[in-house]
Amino acid sequence: MQRRELRVILISLIVSFILTGIKFAAWFLTHSVAILSDALESIINVVAGGFACYSVYLTGKPKDENHPYGHGKIEFFSIGFEGAMIFIAGCLILFKAGQFFFVPSQLEKIDKGLWLIAATTAANLLLGMFLLREGKKLSSLTISGNGKHIMTDVYSSGALIAALLLIHFTGWSWVDPLVSALMGILILRQGYQLLRKSISGLMDETDMQVVEKVIEVMSVHRRPKWIDVHNMRVQQYGNNYHIDCHLTLPYYLELSEAHDELKVIEQVVNKSFTSGDVEFFIHTDPCIPACCHYCQLADCPVRQHEFTGLIPWREENVLPNRKHGE
């Protein structure tokens, strides 16, 4: 899987490098600040792509004594770095747009620049769609983040093409810095979103979609001896997950029986996460009389209360550190 991720990122890096050169050629031809803004953002694509290559390489390294959970956290550094670079590019673009509002430049050869930008936009659209598809398939935050950045470039380039067409047919040169400023704001927003995702990952913010998926899988395969599950926490390391929780089992089970129940949980959850591994750390809790009313064990030899109804597993009773009904 790592080889495939590296191949995908290298394709992105090479294509971005070529397209950046074409955009700068368009800027030299036209002297358009909007085209310069687009070219500056593409430089970020190249720099971020290089960092992403290293990130994917490091993520694929096996666990060691110094990194017992693996090296997957580097992906959050990668998208944070990319977000910071995008944010800086947005600031530079806004600065250049402000300059050209007061000291406009003479635009030249708009038609040729238009064709060059249209070609790079089409290439970026294909690249962005490819990265988003591969990022989802490989559960790679790095590739997905790179794909979102490329798609932002596509949207801004689309606006740029519309602006160049307007300038070409009307001669309104003031549209050039205006579009550049709008592109800068869009780029700032994308940079902020990537930075926010990076900080969330580094701070181990709970990914509720993953929690919901784990709860759903465990609920579908729920066995009578699994009385309740609570205090669930999920951490992501690259495309792998570390999950710990408390599982309430009948207190009279032998250690080997309890171990078998835990292995079943690990197997059914790992089968549902086909693009990565799930490592479970499960703490077993003994049942108490208060559990009897929702315990499904019909032949329980120590039951003190009748079964009154199953308590479904949901976020509100799986995440807190307490048995159901307490």
TrEMBL record:
The keyword Phosphoprotein does not apply. Its main location: membrane. It comes from the Bacteria. Residues 9-203 form the Cation efflux protein transmembrane domain. It is a multi-pass membrane protein. Belongs to the cation diffusion facilitator (CDF) transporter (TC 2.A.4) family. This is Cation diffusion facilitator family transporter. It comes from Chitinophaga tropicalis. The lineage of its organism: Bacteria, Pseudomonadati, Bacteroidota, Chitinophagia, Chitinophagales.
